[in-house]
């Protein structure tokens, strides 16, 4: 027969087992959430061992400035993918932004006014995507694949398939200028990352994006304006692509409509590696920042070691597939 002490002891043992199980779950959650930081740290250590000049401040500066356009697009792509969508047209909008910005500079427009017009074009392009997807109920893949051709074709027609070369030294400030020794493009990328993270984690709009990605119908029944919110994510993403295009045009002093062919896939890769789920409802801008750093560090290391570009494609593709497989595994466990 069980005594009070034995019952108490049994409860204590069960309670202890539950606590241990909860502790294991907590450690697993922490590993899933912050494991990317460990991966990045290991990658940096390996890079420094294999390439002793990796941590040279000039090299770090080059890594960040070269990847600033990609990082800016990745912020917008994160918002879109959290709503269970994606935008394949960012590459063509990136090229269009570069082309229009350079052409307006050649025409003598004040650069702030030219920048405002380019951003407006990005907003218009994102609005086209958003309306097509939310109002016409076209699949995001099909819709943005179609607008990729539209935006690219318009940019080629506008430029007559010829580049715009800018000789004005002031034009290079956005892409090559620096403030307190840090490139302007890196400052801009950092600001966009910080604003994006605050919007996602601290605002009603950000929580609405997660709700829509988790269950669109439930979010609608809860009173959220799902059509408007989903469409707005494409507007932000396209505007980010236009800004990125201005940076690359400024850096190269040239704008042409045939650049950015891999930018959409690169941005999706960064966001996926950062842990944003393709199924929507999960992700964070800070995680996309870590994903960007992982891709940037890996690319710099492979370039420094003179690894063939074809092998680089294989390595990066393998990492993306592994990231998606890990996401699927994590969802299955949950």
What's the topology here?
Layout: H1 4-50, H2 57-82, H3 90-106, H4 111-134, H5 140-159, E1 164-165, H6 173-176, E2 178-179, E3 182-183, H7 184-202, H8 204-214, H9 216-221, H10 226-252, E4 254-255, H11 263-273, H12 285-304, H13 309-333
Antiparallel strand pairs: 1-4, 2-3
Helix pairs in contact: 1-12, 2-7, 2-8, 2-10, 2-11, 2-12, 3-4, 3-5, 3-10, 4-5, 4-10, 7-8, 8-10, 11-12, 11-13
Lateral arrangement of strands in the main beta sheet: 1-4
Shape: globular
List segments where confidence is low: pLDDT < 50 over at least 5 consecutive residues. Answer: 1-18
Question: Rg from C-alpha positions?
Answer: 23 Å
Structural class estimated from helices and strands: mainly alpha
Kindly describe this structure.
The chain has a two-stranded antiparallel ribbon with strand order 1-4. It has a two-stranded antiparallel ribbon with strand order 2-3. It is 77% helix and 2% strand. Residues 1-18 have low confidence and may be disordered. It is mostly helical.
Short descriptors:
4 strands, disordered N terminus, mainly alpha, single chain, two-stranded antiparallel ribbon, 13 helices, two-stranded antiparallel sheet, 334 residues
Please provide a brief summary of the model.
The chain is mainly alpha-helical.
């Amino acid at each position: 027969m069980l005594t009070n002490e034995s019952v108490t002891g049994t409860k204590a043992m069960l309670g202890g087992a539950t606590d241990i199980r909860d502790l294991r779950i907590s450690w697993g959650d922490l590993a899933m959430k912050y494991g990317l930081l460990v991966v990045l740290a290991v990658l940096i250590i390996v890079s420094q061992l294999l390439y002793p000049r990796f941590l040279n401040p000039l090299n770090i500066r080059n890594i960040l400035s070269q990847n600033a356009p990609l990082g800016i697009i990745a912020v917008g792509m994160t918002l879109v993918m959290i709503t269970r969508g994606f935008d394949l047209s960012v590459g063509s909008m990136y090229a269009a932004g570069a082309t229009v910005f350079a052409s307006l500079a050649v025409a003598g427009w004040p650069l702030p006014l030219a920048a405002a017009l380019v951003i407006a074009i990005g907003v218009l392009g994102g609005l086209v995507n958003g309306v097509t997807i939310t109002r016409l109920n076209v699949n995001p893949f099909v819709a943005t694949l179609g607008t990729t051709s539209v935006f690219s074709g318009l940019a080629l027609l506008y430029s007559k398939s010829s580049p715009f070369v800018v000789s004005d030294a002031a034009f290079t400030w956005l892409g090559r200028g620096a403030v307190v020794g840090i490139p302007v493009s890196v400052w801009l990328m950092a600001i966009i990352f910080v604003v994006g993270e605050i919007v996602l984690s601290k605002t009603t709009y950000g929580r609405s994006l997660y709700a829509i990605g988790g269950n669109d119908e439930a979010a609608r029944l809860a009173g959220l304006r799902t059509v408007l919110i989903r469409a707005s994510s494409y507007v932000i993403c396209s505007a980010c692509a236009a800004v990125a295009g201005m940076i690359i045009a400024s850096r190269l002093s040239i704008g042409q409509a045939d650049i950015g062919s891999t930018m959409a896939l690169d941005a999706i890769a960064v966001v996926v590696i950062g842990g944003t789920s393709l199924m929507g409802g999960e992700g964070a801008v800070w995680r996309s920042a870590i994903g960007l750093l992982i891709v940037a560090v890996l690319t710099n290391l492979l370039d420094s070691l003179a690894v063939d570009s074809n092998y680089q494609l294989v390595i990066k593709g393998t990492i993306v597939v592994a990231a998606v497989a890990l996401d699927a595994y994590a969802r299955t466990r949950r």
